[in-house]
Automatic annotation (TrEMBL):
Entry-linked PANTHER family: BNAC02G40300D PROTEIN, POLYNUCLEOTIDYL TRANSFERASE, RIBONUCLEASE H-LIKE SUPERFAMILY PROTEIN
Domain of life: Eukaryota
Gene Ontology molecular functions: nucleic acid binding; RNA-DNA hybrid ribonuclease activity
Organism this protein belongs to: Linum trigynum
Highest classification ranks of the organism: Eukaryota, Viridiplantae, Streptophyta, Embryophyta, Tracheophyta
Gene3D superfamilies: Ribonuclease H-like superfamily/Ribonuclease H
Name of the protein this chain belongs to: RNase H type-1 domain-containing protein
Length: 183
């Protein structure tokens, strides 16, 4: 409970304007063709209601949060799959933002060992790891590194927060489909 309250306090204490995934910061860490290194922390979370999410936090060299994003994965209940999809989403996100030097940090040790060993022989996540390896090959400045849960608390909190909010979004999506089918 103490860890939960600490993480909740950490999440609530982050400035809301820094966590808006639709707001692009004034100054991304790419200036005049030269790129500075950033860290993309990611973590996955699984709900008992047959869905999962990933939390992505983009930080500059000084540890300041640049962007944050929660991603919803319907019908995914395997934590390894959620973590793997979260890493792939983070790589694609940084690539789309035009950032060329990124250190991806997560607490999924098995996944990170597979990615760094370039081992895509896994029945559950092998195809996704193959995609990740292709993306890493194209983006030579991207690295994946293991960090413990304590170092990844903010991304963990983001994934948990997205998990709790996704149910509302999912119902809204269902409602839109239902209304659309009636028109």
């Amino acid at each position: 409970m103490r860890q939960y309250h600490q993480q909740l306090h950490e999440w609530v204490s982050l400035p809301e304007d820094r966590l808006n995934p639709h707001r692009v910061p004034q100054q991304l860490p790419v200036e005049d063709g030269t790129s500075r290194s950033v860290v993309c922390m990611w973590d996955g979370a699984v709900s008992a209601n047959s869905h999962s999410t990933a939390g992505l936090i983009l930080k500059d060299e000084g540890g300041n949060v640049l962007l944050a994003k929660g991603v919803f994965f319907p019908n995914i209940v395997d934590p390894l799959v959620a973590e793997t999809l979260g890493l792939r989403e983070g790589i694609q996100w940084c690539q789309a933002l035009g950032i060329h030097q990124v250190r991806f940090e997560g607490d999924a040790k098995v996944l990170i060992e597979k990615v760094n060993a370039k081992d895509a022989r896994d029945g559950r996540v092998g195809a996704i790891i193959s995609e990740i390896l292709s993306l890493l090959e194209v983006n030579g400045g991207f690295r994946v590194r293991f960090v413990g849960r304590n170092s990844n608390r903010v991304a963990h909190s983001m994934a948990r927060k997205a998990l709790s909010l996704s149910q509302t979004s999912y119902r809204l999506y269902d409602l839109c489909l239902w209304v659309g089918s009636r028109i």
